[in-house]
Amino acid sequence: MTTDAETTVGSLRKTVAAFVDARDWQPFHTPKNLSMSIAIEAAELMERFQWLTTEEAQAAVDDAAERAAVTDELADVIIYCLSLSNALELDISSAVLGKLQNNEHRYPVNEFRGRFRRPEREKSDKT
Amino acid sequence: MTTDAETTVGSLRKTVAAFVDARDWQPFHTPKNLSMSIAIEAAELMERFQWLTTEEAQAAVDDAAERAAVTDELADVIIYCLSLSNALELDISSAVLGKLQNNEHRYPVNEFRGRFRRPEREKSDKT
Amino acid sequence: MTTDAETTVGSLRKTVAAFVDARDWQPFHTPKNLSMSIAIEAAELMERFQWLTTEEAQAAVDDAAERAAVTDELADVIIYCLSLSNALELDISSAVLGKLQNNEHRYPVNEFRGRFRRPEREKSDKT
Amino acid sequence: MTTDAETTVGSLRKTVAAFVDARDWQPFHTPKNLSMSIAIEAAELMERFQWLTTEEAQAAVDDAAERAAVTDELADVIIYCLSLSNALELDISSAVLGKLQNNEHRYPVNEFRGRFRRPEREKSDKT
What we know:
homotetramer, mainly alpha
């Protein structure tokens, strides 16, 4: 089966690698080109929501056709991320889990619950 | 262990979900904001290669410090992709494998080996 | 004076060109690098609004410090656009006015007033 | 005439404003949507060079059809920049000239001629 619960990141990387190799596309898969490709597909994903309000965007993804389009664009972004990890032999799982560990310290729960930036220091804190 | 060979996409999604939930960040994780975030991090990844030639870029990722920086930015892109899949309950593995299947037909090996676009039709094909 | 009412696009292009030339930066200003640079700066501009609701974003730009930050990022995007027009010797004014002319036909006022896509055809239109 | 030598930034802004106003598109032109739009069009511009080497990209823009496509995408980026300056009432010329002035100090010619980052300090500087 091919759901996220059963599929390893490694097996997705292998499927992408086989697709790229069968077409001899490795020469095109330079770090520069792949980083551009990730950004290009990220923009196509954004385009699904370009003129929608936040509420309209939430409603849109409940529509089957729109959901399929968003899924398609997200897949494109991820496929290029997998290609870059293959081209550079970067382990995605360690990278993601390592970054989340760092982020535990950069964004302590007690300071960042419900907010994305530290509150400005109260004047009283300076006494 | 946390390498791609042993880590399921689902376990990465769960770790990201726990991080977001602990901080009550779900209200910020709208489809619009997350698609912008993926694009923002994709640009930070591109920035590693902004002024480098293709050869300089390939050499850069052999340097440990630069490799760590690229890994960090790629992790950021992927973490937001995982957040979007959580927010929209999209199965990444089916999306990626489904898209690669479609791409098998859009980019047949015999037509696309070593090239990224179909060759222009020879004039003789029009007779 | 340096306001938009008195400043020609050409004079802005010349000022950017002088800045680039003084630093012998033309070899870095390839079409690929400049297109990446425009996208990188566009992402930094988006970052100002990343987690804000539409209303919060509108309010933010009324704050002097935030307005200055947005202005700074928009300037960066435009400076790279001017650099690309210099590198490729493209006339921006003709390009913009030509595209707006095409858009007059692609987005006729009577069909697109208050909307960004054509309404779906009513069934009665098919009789 | 409509070349950069004779066209003020202000006149381009007015033409864009008239186009947007005729279609009652101002409600869609929020800072968030416009910053997303600039990034979306920047990615379409990058797409022209996605798989080309630097040399192939330089050659491509000598082809009339490709040059027109690049011009079209650059125009789209700039049109959204002009829309954002209109929506926020930001003077582009002062922003650009001000940023270049700041950059004169951030990137002094004697340190940045022919390079985009400061050279690493020689060990001898630490004695």
